[in-house]
């Protein structure tokens, strides 16, 4: 990373737009990048309400300013939208990057070498869409189809710092380094571990680490707290509940998902709700955005 950082002219920090305040490892970023320009990309913004964007933007800018980190810009990306402009991959995005790099050039006169091109480094916690962004930039700005770097729905898909991936030729050559989710999510002032659970809900921490049932329990708590009751029908309930076991038991009936177990007292084979895949189904429904465009950090927005 150190070697890559020395050759980097601009950092693209990627984070999940559903959790703009949770899990960003800003102190580590601050230490690693020193004076390099940072552009924050809030990805997966298709999953939050567009109305919240200006508020999130201004609050984050202020927060970063307070801790002495200058952000060049904050951009909302929907990297899987079919239309490139709608996805956030406009000419303006490229211009923002080039302007940031140029400012760096003025600061460090001989730092740039036009022949070798400019290097960008994509950083962020796992599963926020770093590889997707690189592939999309290459696709839009270099007009290359296919994937140069691997994408996956689970945390930890990218395993090593890869080769430079070219993403643009004109007006300058731009290269990107993909990184694995090397930044661990960071939690400060998180006494109830809510930020931690929100990160888990967004898949930035492997589900296996926390356990799917526990993540489902937090999702149920969060939906109830915000009076969002679409889950009632989805889980086959008749009314809201705070009890995840009750919720998943109803879901077991609806989806006919039971597993056999031997009752040692009676010696009879019985059926039990198969909680794990049911919890996964419930979490999956949230992750697809089917309970609405939900901003998990909404209570922290003033
Ligand atoms: N809804 C939505 N999903 C996205 C978006 N961008 C990426 N994804 C999905 O998020 C998942 C993770 O994407 P990756 O690009 O592999 O994420 P990463 O940050 O490179 O992950 P690691 O390499 O594991 O750290 C994949 O299932 C993507 O399809 C987006 O803008 N919106
Ligand atoms: Mg990746």
Automatic annotation (TrEMBL):
One Gene Ontology cellular component: mitochondrion
Xref: Pfam families: MMR_HSR1
G domain location: 121-194
GO BP terms, alphabetized: mitochondrial translation
Gene Ontology molecular-function annotations: GTP binding; GTPase activity
Keywords linked to the UniProt accession: GTP-binding, Nucleotide-binding
UniProt entry tagged with the keyword Heme: no
Entry keyword Ribosomal protein: no
Domain of life the protein comes from: Eukaryota
Name of the protein in question: Mitochondrial GTPase 1-like protein
Organism: Euroglyphus maynei (Mayne's house dust mite)
């Amino acid at each position: 990373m150190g070697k890559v950082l020395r050759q980097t002219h601009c950092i693209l920090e990627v984070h999940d737009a559903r959790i703009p305040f949770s899990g960003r490892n800003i102190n580590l970023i601050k230490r690693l990048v020193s004076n390099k320009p940072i552009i924050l990309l809030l990805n997966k913004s298709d999953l939050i309400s567009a109305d919240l964007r200006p508020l999130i933007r201004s609050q984050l800018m202020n927060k970063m300013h307070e801790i002495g980190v200058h952000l060049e810009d904050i951009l909302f990306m929907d990297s899987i939208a079919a239309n490139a402009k709608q996805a956030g991959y406009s000419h303006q995005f490229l211009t923002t990057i080039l302007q940031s790099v140029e400012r760096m050039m003025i600061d460090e006169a001989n730092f740039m070498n036009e022949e070798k091109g400019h290097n960008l480094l994509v950083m962020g916690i796992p599963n926020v869409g770093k590889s997707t962004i690189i592939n999309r930039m290459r696709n839009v700005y270099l007009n290359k189809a296919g994937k140069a770097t691997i994408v996956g729905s689970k945390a930890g898909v990218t395993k090593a710092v890869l080769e430079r991936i070219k993403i643009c030729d004109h007006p300058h050559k731009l290269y990107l380094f993909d990184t694995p989710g090397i930044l661990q999510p960071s939690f400060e002032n998180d006494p109830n571990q809510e930020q931690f659970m929100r990160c888990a809900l967004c898949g930035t921490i492997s589900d296996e680490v926390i356990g799917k049932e526990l993540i489902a329990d937090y999702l149920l708590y969060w939906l109830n707290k915000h009076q969002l009751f679409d889950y009632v029908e989805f889980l086959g309930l008749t009314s809201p509940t705070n009890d995840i076991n009750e919720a998943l038991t109803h879901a077991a009936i609806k989806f006919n998902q039971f597993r056999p177990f031997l009752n040692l007292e009676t010696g009879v084979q019985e059926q039990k709700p198969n909680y794990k895949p049911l919890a996964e189904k419930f979490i999956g429904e949230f992750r697809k955005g089917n309970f609405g465009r939900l901003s998990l950090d909404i209570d922290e927005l003033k």
